[in-house]
Amino acid sequence: MLNLDGLKDIVGDDQALMKDMLKQFVETTQADMTHLQDAIAAGRTRDVANLAHRIKGSCFVIGATELADIAASLEADGRKDHSEMFSTLAEQMTAAFQKVVDNICAL
């Protein structure tokens, strides 16, 4: 679920910094996911795309590729104003995010 190699390249052997970055990821992404749900409910496709893009970038930093891939799909749909899959992708993102959080907590 997590490939921390890229993050280790950034922080080196500094475990405290790694834990801090992972904590910040969880907090920031949780807030972004809440805003994403609000944007989906309101039909704001541009906001959906922007928030999904932000989440995707954060995921790549910590190696959460499954979550990043789902966010990329949501971003692409948002940029094309294709809202049909928003709810399904948001549910997938929520489940994938929980897996990432569980993996982080297990470190």
Automatic annotation (TrEMBL):
Q: Does the keyword RNA-binding apply?
A: no
Natural source organism: Parendozoicomonas callyspongiae
Q: Where does the record place the modification Phosphohistidine?
A: 53
Put simply, this protein is called Hpt domain-containing protein
Question: Which keywords has UniProt assigned to this entry?
Answer: Phosphoprotein, Two-component regulatory system
List, for all copies, the residue spans of the domain called HPt.
14-107
Keyword Transferase attached: no
Family matches, as Gene3D superfamilies? HPT domain
InterPro entries hit by this protein: HPT_dom_sf, Sig_transdc_His_kin_Hpt_dom
> What Pfam families does the record tag this protein with?
Hpt
